[in-house]
Amino acid sequence: MKTNGNLTAKAASKRDRAMRAFSAKKYGDLLAETVPGVIADDKEYDRLEEIFNGLIDKGEDMLSQEEGKLFELLANLLEEYETRTLPTLPAVSPAEALRFLIAENNLKQADLEDIFGSQSAVSRAMNGSRRIGVEHAKGLARKFNVSAELFI
User: Fold this and answer.
1) Do residues 41 and 114 both lie within one domain?
2) Alpha helix locations (H) across the chain?
3) What is the H or E stretch that residue 6 is in?
4) Are the C-beta atoms of 141 and 148 separated by less than 8 Å?
5) pLDDT of the chain along its 152 residues, tens only?
6) Would you state the pLDDT for residue 122?
7) Residue 130's CATH number
8) Which candidate, 78, 82, 86, places its Cα nearest to that of 37?
9) Interatomic CA distance for residues 45 and 131, integer angstroms
10) Does 49 share its domain with 108?
11) Whose CA is closest to 111, among 133, 135, 145, 144?
């Protein structure tokens, strides 16, 4: 990741963070400021989610090691609360998931030709007569910003 013999600013920033030692004091200060803990209600969830989103907005490459650790902690706390409080979604087939995502994103079969190779292949995947392979699942996951497991 060199340009004209010099490190890019992004690579230099990553290198500088990696070389700087983790500071338990700075992490402790972040914890004292955010006071994360097991989430008991929606109000606490919203508070921690706001902090979490602020870290996302800052950008992964711009987080200090301490902020990165806080980010991971908040992600775990938020996920645990969601798992505990949100209803379980019914299982859907890969074809049902694909049809839903196409409809929700106002797409046509032609919009997925780049992933499947042809409209007829998209049609077969949508009606369930064709299994969605791993590479197609990865392409769909990137396009819809979901897990590839949804399509397998």
Assistant:
1) no
2) 9-19, 24-34, 42-58, 65-85, 94-104, 113-116, 119-127, 134-144
3) strand 6-7
4) yes
5) 444 445 555 555 555 655 578 899 999 999 999 999 999 999 999 999 999 999 999 988 899 999 999 999 999 999 999 989 988 767 899 999 999 999 999 999 999 999 999 999 999 999 999 899 999 999 999 999 888 999 98
6) 94
7) 1.10.260.40
8) 78
9) 39
10) no
11) 144
Rounded Cα distance, 146 and 101, in Å: 10
Q: State residue 4's pLDDT score.
A: 46
Check whether residue 7 and residue 79 sit in a common domain.
yes
pTM exceeds 0.70: no
CA distance 7 to 77: 36
d(CA 126, CA 63) in angstroms, rounded, equals 41
Stretch (H or E) spanning 2: strand 2-3
Q: What CA–CA distance (Å, rounded) separates 137 from 127? A: 15
Beta-bridged to residue 7, according to DSSP, are 2
Q: Which tokens in the block code for residue 147?
A: 């897990």
